[in-house]
C-alpha cells in the first residue's frame, strides 16, 4: 500500500511539473498579433496599428502597449464605477455629447464584424483579430 501511494504521489508531482512547464513555456505564454484600426467615420480617415496581445489578455493592455511605443497612438479613458474603463479619446479626438459623437468598439474576425458586449477593459481579442475604434455619431 505504501509503494502505491508513493508511485501515485510521484506521478501527481510529475503531472504538476509538466503542466507548469507547459503554461510557462508553451502556447499559453505566446503573445498573439492583432491590428487596431482607428477609424474616423465622420472624416473618412483611418490609421492602422499592429501590436500583440497576451494569451487571454484584455484589449486595454494591448492599447497601453501601443501607447507606450513610439508610434503616435494615444488614448484616454474615464473610469465608470459600474462598467469599468470608458474610452473617451483616441489620438486627441474625444466624443462630445453636444455633437452626439463617441468611440464605438468593433471587432472583426474572418470577415465578420461584431459589437462586443463589453468595453476595452474587459474585451479579450482573439489572435489575428482586427479591433476597430470607430469615431461616429449616435
TrEMBL record:
Residues in the signal sequence: 1-29
Any GO molecular function: cobalamin binding
Gene Ontology biological process terms in this record: cobalamin transport
One Pfam family hit: DUF4430
Keywords: Signal
Domain named Transcobalamin-like C-terminal: residues: 79-137
Keyword Transmembrane helix appears in the UniProt entry: no
UniProt xrefs under InterPro entries: Cobalamin_Transport (IPR051588), Transcobalamin-like_C (IPR027954)
Domain of life: Eukaryota
GO cellular component, one term: extracellular space
The protein, known as: Transcobalamin-like C-terminal domain-containing protein
Amino acid at each position: 500500500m505504501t509503494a502505491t501511494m508513493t508511485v501515485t504521489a510521484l506521478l501527481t508531482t510529475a503531472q504538476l511539473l509538466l503542466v507548469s512547464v507547459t503554461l510557462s513555456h508553451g502556447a499559453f505564454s505566446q503573445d498573439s498579433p492583432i491590428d487596431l484600426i482607428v477609424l474616423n467615420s465622420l472624416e473618412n480617415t483611418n490609421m492602422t496599428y499592429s501590436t500583440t496581445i497576451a494569451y487571454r489578455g484584455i484589449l486595454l493592455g494591448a492599447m497601453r502597449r501601443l501607447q507606450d511605443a513610439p508610434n503616435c497612438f494615444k488614448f484616454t479613458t474615464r473610469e465608470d464605477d459600474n462598467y469599468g474603463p470608458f474610452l473617451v479619446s483616441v489620438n486627441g479626438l474625444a466624443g462630445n455629447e453636444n455633437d452626439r459623437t463617441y468611440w464605438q468598439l468593433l471587432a472583426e474576425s474572418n470577415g465578420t464584424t461584431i459589437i462586443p458586449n463589453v468595453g476595452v477593459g474587459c474585451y479579450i481579442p482573439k489572435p489575428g483579430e482586427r479591433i476597430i475604434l470607430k469615431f461616429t455619431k449616435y
